[in-house]
Design goal:
The protein has 249 residues and is an alpha/beta fold. The strands form 2 sheets. The chain has an 8-stranded mixed sheet with strand order 5-4-3-2-1-10-11-12, sandwiched between helices. The protein has a 4-stranded antiparallel sheet with strand order 6-7-9-8, with helices on one face. Helix 1 packs across helix 7 and helix 5 runs parallel beside helix 6. The chain is globular, with a radius of gyration of 18 Å.
Length: 249
Amino acid sequence: MPQLHSRCALFLDFDGTLTPIVLRPQDVQVGAWLVPTLRSLQSRLNGALAIISGRPLSELDAFLAPLRLPAAGVHGVERRDAQGRTRVQAGAPPADVLYTVERVVARYPELRLERKPSALALHYREAPHLGDVCQQTLLAAVRPHQEDWTVLLGKCVVEVKPKRATKAHAVIEFMESEEFAGRVPLFIGDDATDEDGFTAVQAAGGAGVKVGPGPSGALHRLADPDAVRAWLEAALAQWPQSAQPQSAP
C-alpha cells in the first residue's frame, strides 16, 4: 500500500469505498468513524482531500454533514472546490433516452430510475437478472447521441452522463488548484467507474487503490470498506498530531 503523508492529495469514492454497498442507495448507513476521520484527514492534508462520487453533491453533503468537503458529484458533472465554489455542467439527457428508460422501468417495476443533475441512473440491484436488459437498452438508446453522451456500467447500475464529465477530469482539475497542486495524488475506489481516476493519479506519479475484487489498473488493493477504514485510521495514528502539513516541492 502507498504511504499516506502530508504531501499527498487524497481522492475518495463514497459507495463501496467509505460505506458498504446496500440494496438501495438511499439506505446507506454512514459509520460513526467516517466524519471525524475525514475531518482529521482534511486538516492533516491542509485541505487536499476530495470526495469523487457518482452521487450528487447534495447527497454526499447530507451523508457527511456537517462537513462540506471539496468534491466531484455525478462522476464530475458537479464539482465544488476548496473555497466552496460549485460549478455544474448544464444539460439534460436526450428526451428519447429518458423516454426509453421510463418505458423499461414501467415494464420492470423492480428497477429504479434515479434522475441526477445532467445525468440519470438505472439501478437493477433488486433485479440483477435484468442487468443485460438494462445495459443493452441504454447502450442502444445513447448510440445516436454518443458524440456528447456516454454510458457507464457500474455495480448493478447503468448511468447516462455527459461524455466530457469524468472522474479523471475532476481529479485533474483538482490537481491544478492551489490546495492540491504539486502533491502526490492517491485515489481509492471500488468500481469500474473509478478506473479513469486511477489512471489519472498514476499518470501524475501517484497511485490508485482498488477496493474489492475484480480486474483493475490500480497499483494497490484493499479488501473492502472496513479495510479502507483500517488503512486510513492507521495512517492517522502514525501521523503525529503536532505535525504540520508541508508544502510539496
